[in-house]
Amino acid sequence: MRKLISIREFPIFVVFVLFYLTAGLGNHQIFTTSGLHDILFGSAIVALLAVAETLIIVMKHIDLSIGSVIGFSSYLIGKNASEGHGLFFCMSIGVGLGLLVGALNGLLVAYFRLPSLVVTLGTLYLVRGYFSQVVGGDFINSGQVPKLLTSMATHTFVKVPLLFIVSLIVALIVGLYMRNMRSGRDLYAIGSNHSAALLAGINVAHRTFWAFTAAGGIAGFAGAVLLARYGQAQANSGLGIELNVVAACVVGGVAIAGGVGTVYGAIIGAILLQTIVLALGALGVSQFWQGVVNGALLIAAISLDKILSMRSVRTQIMRKVQHD
Amino acid sequence: MISVKNNLKQLNQNLTWDKGVGILLVLTVIFGWVMTPDFASTSNLGFVLQDIGEILIIALPMTFLIIAGEIDLSVASTLSLASSTMGYAYRSGLGFGIAVFIGILVSILCGAINGFLVNYLGLQSLAVTIGTMGLFRGLCFVLLGNQPVNQLPDFWANLGSESIPHTFLPWSVVIIIPSVIIAWVVLHRTRVGRWTFVTGISAEAARFSGIPDKRFKFWLFVATGFMSGVAAFVYTLRFASASPDSATGYELSVIAAVLFGGVSIAGGFGTMWGVLFSVLELGAIRSVLQLINFTANALQMVSGALLLFSVALPRVIEMLKTRREARVKPSVTSLTSSRSV
After folding, report:
1. Shortest Cα–Cα distance, A293 to chain B (Å)
2. Are residues B168 and B37 in the same domain?
3. Which of B99, B93, B84, B57 is nearest to B250 (CA)?
4. pTM of the predicted structure, to 2 decimals
5. CA dist B230 to B176, B225, B234, Å?
6. What is the complex's ipTM, to 2 decimals?
7. Domain total for chain B?
8. pLDDT (tens digit, 9 = 90+) per residue, A266-296?
9. For residue A162, what are the domain limits?
10. Chain A interface, Cβ < 8 Å to B
């Protein structure tokens, strides 16, 4: 039991359950399977992007360009599909775009040693600007979306929406990689102490570069999920989603200070944010409060994390003093 | 030949980043003049000044913040919240002057919230201001819903659209010019300015040398909130409306401008001249591009490219320098000669 409590994701899971129960008492709709379905369906995209962002935040970096990448990728996939190309080809273009932007971010951050915040802010602008230029007033409607994608959005497996299962599979792969592979553990080492990681012989630049590239690739892949979910793509697809993603990660225990957190926590964070959105709607609170709640939750999460970590450091020091 | 080489070296040493941006500004203006005669028309210059007004007003305190090693991503949301508050207060029947006063009070409060969370709870300013960015923006929608406030009193709306009589200058320069002068004097000529640089280079050293770093940075955030409120006033008058989605993306333009002006994102370096030149340069480029029929999307790309370019170029120069020095080191004669440079 003590072991269970000491898991980093435990408190956030408790918060989620409490929130789910209180919201459900206010509106029984949420307790039904369709309520659960709505929560998982709505959080699939943010959850998938949060997996990519976890790779980056764990290294004490940040990637703000994913919102532009997912939007552009969803448009490219839809556009190529409407021109009669096969789904595999379209997907490769979307993922390829993500890999390209990710590699550019990685190059500038890892080898030029530039701050990731500034670099990804720049690529956010660049990609979104180019995307809007290419799209103009054009948009992809549901008729142009590949049939396989639209059917994925409507189907479920054991009552769980397929889109969420896609996110879960990606999360599982990345989660196992970060937990068990040596290069995955290196990401944590880089995030908790950059110079110690260098001294320990980790090829920091190499790892950083590939982590950014992989995150970009996942964001490109997520473009297909975005297209499947909304059945459309236009110039403002995915606009501003990066803030929800960072919020989901931080709420899910992936500390912005680097070195801790898992993709599973990030996914629970994404689900919690979506639950709050739906619960507010079900309780009759105006949808305008959604942004306020997201922002407040992000600040509450980092404050709580800081206070808890300060306390644990203090108890360690106290113990040491008593031993001496 | 040798003297030419020496002169070049001299030039190379004296050419700092901020002066480079100034030269680039002059080149852009000349280029714009040659490309389209409209560029140098007084009405267009007035338009450029109006176009960059809010960005310049917020860039001033942002320069202080970034030099001091912090950042504030919530400025555009603060601007929008202050503007929405002005609109809301005016719509509920208060006089417009009082509404502006309340709006600016709200923006000061926003800055104080950021300052408190960063300095007294010890949180990272990047994470905090990503949070407050969403929070303040959300509050705008809570206040106004989807209805912008459009009917401002004629007197104020005219101030926003007309220029000062007998000149081409927009009324906003009445706020902008004194602000720039004050910001320059404070940063480069006062103790508070020295504190800014010292805290940016090492917060710990600053604390040990008796600078009240937390209180100081708290007031920097408050000042940023206040200037965002002032920018909100200018913005509201310029568009003669208060809407919850105002100034989206301005935080990126402001930060891009400050960094392009030669302020180091790591803190500790930067000049007010550089930032002033850089904001003007941004306005000039935008104007030239608009006049030769580029779209708004292209402008967004230019901002992004400028931002990347302004952080990447100094690093490339630095890397080339260290590489050259590493190559030069083994030979003693070249070492002494490189010293004398």
Report:
1. 7
2. yes
3. B57
4. 0.84
5. 10, 9, 7
6. 0.80
7. 2
8. 999 999 888 888 877 777 777 778 788 878 8
9. 2-323
10. 62, 108, 112-115, 117-119, 121-130, 132-133, 243, 246-247, 250, 256-257, 286, 288-296, 298-299, 302-303, 306-307
